[in-house]
Design brief:
With 379 residues, the protein is an alpha/beta fold. The protein folds into two domains: 190 residues, Rossmann fold (3-Layer(aba) Sandwich), CATH 3.40.50; 159 residues, Glycogen Phosphorylase B (Rossmann fold). It contains twelve helices and twelve strands. α1 links the parallel β1 and β2. The chain is globular, with a radius of gyration of 22 Å.
C-alpha cells in the first residue's frame, strides 16, 4: 500500500534527536520493510504549548491549506495514499489532517500512541480535546504502546475501531556492544536532555536518590545537555567530589558505546511516556533502576531486567539501587536478561509482525465502517 505518515507532534524531517522522532523513523522503516511505500506528510508542526484560541485557529487554517494542496496534487494525477498513519494524536498536538483526508478518500486510518485526557474535556483545552476525540472515533486501528494509553482509549473501542498493543521497540544499525564487565567501583550512567518539566524533575529526583546512597562507592556519568544544565548541575553539587562526570551531548553511536562501559542505568523517569533509552541500555546489557511511572514498565521486565519503585517513592528507588550496588551477581544476571529481552523481544521484526496484522485489521474495519458520521465513545 501507499501510506501517508503524519507526525503532528514533531515534524518528521526536522533532524533533531528525541525518542518520539526516533520511534517515528522506526515505524516508517518497519512499514517499508513490509513492502509498503511510505510518504511522510511534511506539514507544519502542530504542537501547541498553550491553549491559546488564536493559536488553534492558526493551526487549523494551516492544516486546511495543506489539505487543499494535497487534494490539488491528487487532482493533477499524483497517486493518493491508500492508508493514513498518524503517530500521536493528543490535546497538545491534535491530528488536524488525518480525519478529513480519510473521509475524503475513504481510506483506512491508523493512529499510533494516541491518548485521551478526560480532565482536558472542559476548560481551556476543551476544543483541542473535541478535535482529538473526533479523530479517536474515526480511527480504524489504535496502536497503543503502554497500558496507560490503552486505558484511555478503551471508551473508543467499537465494532469499527480496534485497539492493538505495539510494545515499544528499538532498532540498531548494527549489533550493539556488550557490557564490558563490572568495574571495582560500580559505574552508573544516565542519558536525558536537560530541559524544563519532567526531565528536570527526574534529574532533581536522581540527585536526591544519590544523596541517600552517598556512603556507598559508585560513580555516575551523565550524558545530555540543555537549557537547564546550570540548575541541574547545582542539584548534584552536594554529592562527594569526583563522583559525577558530565559528558554533555554526544553523538548517538557514542552514547550506546558509553553505556556499555557502565554497569547500571538509572533514570527515575518521572511521567516518562515510555523511554527508548531504557531499551537501549538493556540492549547493551545494563540492568535498569527507575520509577514505575508513566510508560516505563512497558520497556522493561520488572524484577528480571529492572528494579522499579513506586512513582515518587524515593526511599524505595534508593533501596533498589542499593541492591544492585551491593550484589554484583544480581547485576550480571539482570544485565544478561536485559540484553536478551531488548534484542529478541523488542526488535523491528517483532514490531513488523504486529504492524502487518494491524494494517489488515484497519482495512477490514474501514470497509465495515458506515458512511454516516462517526459517533462518540460508548458509555
Amino acid at each position: 500500500m501507499r501510506i501517508a505518515f503524519h507526525t503532528p507532534l514533531n515534524s518528521y524531517d526536522d533532524g533533531r534527536i528525541s525518542g518520539d522522532r526516533r520511534m517515528a523513523r522506526q515505524l516508517v522503516a518497519a512499514l517499508e520493510g513490509l513492502g509498503h511505500v511510505v510518504e511522510p506528510v511534511l506539514a507544519a508542526r502542530d504542537f501547541m504549548p498553550s491553549a491559546d484560541a488564536e493559536r488553534l485557529v492558526h493551526h487549523r487554517e494551516m492544516a486546511a491549506t495543506h489539505a487543499e494542496a494535497m487534494r490539488a496534487r491528487w487532482r493533477d494525477g499524483a497517486p493518493p495514499p491508500e492508508l493514513w498513519f498518524t503517530y500521536h494524536n493528543y490535546y497538545r498536538a491534535p491530528d488536524l489532517l488525518g480525519p478529513e483526508i480519510v473521509d475524503h478518500l475513504g481510506i483506512p486510518y491508523v493512529v499510533a500512541e494516541a491518548s485521551d485526557a478526560e480532565r482536558r474535556a472542559s476548560g481551556d483545552w476543551a476544543e483541542h480535546t473535541r478535535i482529538v476525540r473526533a479523530g479517536l472515533a474515526a480511527t480504524d486501528l489504535h496502536l497503543y504502546f503502554t497500558d496507560r494509553d490503552r486505558q484511555g482509549l478503551e471508551p473508543w473501542r467499537s465494532r469499527c475501531t480496534a485497539l492493538l498493543e505495539l510494545p515499544p521497540f528499538i532498532a540498531f544499525d548494527r549489533e550493539p556492544p556488550r557490557h564490558a564487565g563490572d568495574a571495582p567501583v560500580p559505574r552508573l550512567v544516565t542519558v536525558a536532555m536537560m530541559r524544563e518539566g519532567t526531565k528536570q524533575n527526574s534529574y532533581l529526583t536522581l540527585a536526591r536518590i544519590l544523596g541517600r546512597v552517598a556512603e556507598r562507592p559508585w560513580t555516575l556519568s551523565i550524558i545530555g545537555d540543555g537549557r537547564q544544565r546550570t540548575e541541574i548541575e547545582q542539584a548534584f553539587s552536594g554529592l562527594p567530589e569526583g563522583r559525577i562526570s558530565w559528558l554533555g551531548a554526544i553523538p548517538h553511536d557514542r552514547v550506546v558505546a558509553e553505556m556499555a562501559a557502565h554497569d547500571v542505568f538509572i533514570w527515575p523517569g518521572v511521567r516518562e511516556a515510555y523511554g527508548l533509552v531504557y531499551l537501549e541500555a538493556q540492549a547493551v546489557g545494563l540492568p535498569i533502576v527507575a520509577f514505575d511511572s508513566g510508560g516505563v514498565s512497558a520497556t522493561v521486565r520488572n524484577g528480571e531486567t529492572a528494579l522499579l519503585a513506586r512513582e515518587g517513592d524515593e526511599a524505595g528507588l534508593a533501596a533498589a539501587l542499593l541492591r544492585l550496588l551491593d550484589d554484583g551477581a544480581m547485576r550480571k544476571a539482570m544485565g544478561q536478561a536485559a540484553r536478551r529481552f531488548a534484542l529478541t523481544e523488542r526488535n523491528p521484526a517483532q514490531a513488523a509482525c504486529i504492524l502487518e496484522r494491524g494494517l489488515a485489521l484497519a482495512v477490514a474495519n474501514r470497509a465495515a465502517r458506515p458512511h454516516a458520521a462517526t459517533t462518540g465513545p460508548k458509555a
